[in-house]
Structure formats: C-alpha cells, structure tokens
Amino acid sequence: MTLRCAVLDDYQDAALRMADWSPLDGKAEVRVLREHLADRDELVAALVDCEIVVAMRERTPFDAELLSRLPRLRLLVTTGRRNASIDVAAAAAAGVTVCGTASSATPPVELTWALLLGLARQVTAENRALREGGPWQSTVGQDLHGRTLGLLGLGRIGGRVARIAQAFGMDVLAWSQHLTAERATEAGAELAADKEDLLRRSDFVSVHLVLSDRTRGLLGEPELRAMRPHAYLVNTSRAAVVDRTALLRALREGWIAGAGLDVFDTEPLPADDPLRTLPNVLATPHLGYVTEGNYRTFFTEAVQNITAFLAGSPVRQLTA
C-alpha cells in the first residue's frame, strides 16, 4: 500500500528540488503544501489522510489536540535537531514517531551579520534613496571597529558571531545564565557582570538564546531602557525573548537606535504589523536558516528518515 506524505510550509517550493525523493517511489506519495495553513480545521483537512508529515522548523505547531485529529499519522519529521512546537510526549502517546535532521549554525550567523551591518551603515535607507532619486548620502554610518558587541548567549551560534566580531576589531561582551568566564574567554569574549551590565556597555546587542521559561521576556522595558540610545538590537533567535510591547515603545520613542529582526511572535507577520513600517527596523521574514545548503540537508535527511522508518529502523528520533 502506498502511504501519503505531506511536506508543510514549503514557501519557496524547494523541497522536491533540494533532495532526491526517488527512494520513496512506490512507497509514499509525496505532496507539497506551499501556503501556511494557520486555520486548524484547514490543516486537519489537508493532513487527515497522511501517514507521514514533514514539518518545516516551528512554522506549524503539533500539540496533543492536533495529533488526536490525525489518526493515520505515524511519522512526523521536523527539519532541525529540535522543535519546541512539537509535543513529543503527546506524539509518542499517540503512536507517532518524531524524527529530526541536522541543521547548520552557519546560516543564522551570516544573517545576524547581514542585519547588523545593514543597520550600522543604514543600507536600507541609502539604497532606497539611490533607487528613488533621493539625496546622495544622507546618513552617517556607525563604525564597528572599536565598538562593543554584546551577545546574549554564546553557544553554537553566538560563539561564531563572536569570532567574526573580533575580525572587525570589536570588543565582545557575553552573558547568559550559565555562562562562565572561562567559556567566554575561550570564545574571545569578556563575561559581563550581569545582563544589565552587558546592555549598558554595548553598542550592538545580539540575541542567541534558546527560548525557555527562563528566557521568555528576558528583555523587557527595564532592559531596553538600559541600552544606549545609539545602540542597535539584533534578534535572529526567538521573538519571545524580547517583550514585543516594550520593543515597539523602544523603537518609537528612541530608547534605542533601531532593531534588526528575523523572528516574530506571529509568522507570517500580519500585513498591518507596525514592525513592517517602522523606519528604524531592518526586518527579514525568518530567513536565518533558509539557505541552499541547509535546505539540502533538511530534505535529504527527511527522505532518509522516512526510508529508515518504512524499513522498521527509525533514525534521528527525538524524545521528550
């Protein structure tokens, strides 16, 4: 019997181009859904006949309620090593195997620097003026050399960001709840005394923390007010680390110079969201992991996961 497999949220229509799906010929019928299905009933209707689902990162949450409405589902593959939007325990209880894939830290590091450099040199404003016949040079960019980059999180991604900062001649401060001075020194950074110390001393602040109960809302009004008025905040990690209401006030009232954002509380970002139009925001639509190399890894390993599952030997299983 040929099984049914749905690939979700393939915005760029890339899944079938980025991997060889032929090992599934005659075993699984693969269909791709390019549009995000935010409505739960529409999502169930699209997946109710599927035994296999491939989910892109955390775009579509799979909680106990949704899993209970997909009685045929047996294998859920997520791109990446972890997926906070999947209730793995509920999946196991429902008899659903959950598997992941490898994911490179390089793409989000590169996008972090794209946003930081774009903010520092006012690339968006200057490009718009050039295209629209506006003034020839209207801004004065910030230097990176000799400035201080504050990193909230110095793990797999933050550590790489730190090394690039050193190549620019920046001083690097780092802080997280369990970061040690030894680990910071190994990455070429100074351990800040605390979160507030980092915010007060940094010209640029970049977030590289996993979202958890401890990090949710970590940057609220007091923290954003502690930043320097000329400082920029970059977040390519998780939107909920930064309190949205406080961030909007900070940007509108000039507590900080601006923000580079790749993650949002609601994705896709609503058309009328103020973050789309604030002049001191440089935003991208959650592109941190979206590169050809990463996509090839995601979908090649997704095919391997499905093939192994069908052979009775699942690989890269995620556990609660």
Folded structure, characterized:
The protein has helices at 40-47, 64-68, 88-93, 106-120, 123-132, 158-167, 181-186, 195-201, 221-226, 244-253, 292-310; strands at residues 3-7, 28-32, 52-55, 75-78, 97-99, 148-152, 171-175, 190-191, 204-207, 232-235, 258-261, 281-283. It is of the alpha/beta class and 320 residues long. The strands form two sheets. It has a seven-stranded parallel sheet, sandwiched between helices.
Topology diagram in text:
Layout: E1 3-7, E2 28-32, H1 40-47, E3 52-55, H2 64-68, E4 75-78, H3 88-93, E5 97-99, H4 106-120, H5 123-132, E6 148-152, H6 158-167, E7 171-175, H7 181-186, E8 190-191, H8 195-201, E9 204-207, H9 221-226, E10 232-235, H10 244-253, E11 258-261, E12 281-283, H11 292-310
Parallel strand pairs: 1-2, 1-3, 3-4, 4-5, 6-7, 6-9, 7-8, 9-10, 10-11, 11-12
Taking the alpha carbons of the first and last residues, their distance comes to: 31 Å
Mean model confidence by pLDDT: 97
How many helices? The count is 11
Query: Per the principal axes of the C-alpha atoms, what is the gross shape?
Result: globular
Query: What summary fits the major beta sheet?
Result: 7 strands, parallel
Report the strand count.
Answer: 12
- Decide which structural class fits the backbone: alpha/beta
Helix content: 25-40%
Q: Which stretches are poorly predicted, pLDDT < 50 over at least 5 residues?
A: none
The fraction of residues in strands falls at: 15-25%
What integer value in Å does the Rg equal? 21 Å
